[in-house]
Structures are given as structure tokens and as C-alpha cells.
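Below sits our specimen:

——
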Amino acid sequence: MNGNLCGLSTGEALSRWCAATISNNALSDFATAPQWAQDGKPDFVDKTDPTDQNADSTGCGMAFLSWLMSLSYSLDKIAPAMVALGDAGTLAQLYANLTSDTTANAWPKFQSAIQALPNGVTSDNPFGAAQPVQTASARAAKPPAGAAKAAAPTGDLPA
């Protein structure tokens, strides 16, 4: 990220999203958005936390980026926009730049979306918007469409 966003909550959320996207969600055991929700959902949209060590600020960022992706803003649009904002940028500014809406609407619209989630915030991708990118090695390991499938094991395993 060219030195931008390092050590900040926004940079940590972006880094985690990038890692989750290219690694088939390898960081799911380190989810921070549920902790943020359990701790009362503090507002780290209008302010950036000057650390990458706070589960609440990182969790807010993770949930917010999931929400933006559910609004059809892909990570390849979000990442350069965040980096362009630099260390002083906020998630509200990111929202405004992507949507052409005002920064003042970012937090209330995000909160409304969070409240509308049927199961609440149970992962870092509560809006289910992002799908992992399939890497070349994963594509190579996947059998071609129409290939015969191996017989299912017998015994106690479900068919």
C-alpha cells in the first residue's frame, strides 16, 4: 500500500480483506467484526483509530467494507480509493468518494444496514458480499466441468 495506512484501523481492515479474498478466507478464525458488534458498535467510520491492534476498530472496518461490497463496490475499487485517501482518510470519506453521497450519511446508513441483518454480525463478512478469489493453483486443482466425480465414501458420513 506504498506506506499508506500502515498501523491504522483502516489499513488493517483493508489488509485483512485482501488476505481473506486471496486465501479462501484463511483469517476467519480471527474475525473482529463480531467483537465490535458485541462491544456496542463504536463509530470508527467517522474517525480512524491510529492503531491496527484494536479489535473494535478493525471489526468496524471489516463490517463496513463488507457493506460497501454488498453495494457493488468491489475490492479492486475500494483498495485504491482508500490508499488515495492516505493516513488521514476515514471510512466515511471512502464512502463519499465511492457513492457521491455525503460523509454525514455513511455512519447512519451503515448502522441501518447492520440493524437490518437477520442474524446480526456473526463474521467479518456480515453482508456476505465478497467471495474469495480463486488462485491459479486452486483452479488447477479443481477438476474440469463435467468430469466424473469420485464415489462418495460409505459409512457414517452424509452422502
Observations:
- The chain is about 45% helix and 0% strand.
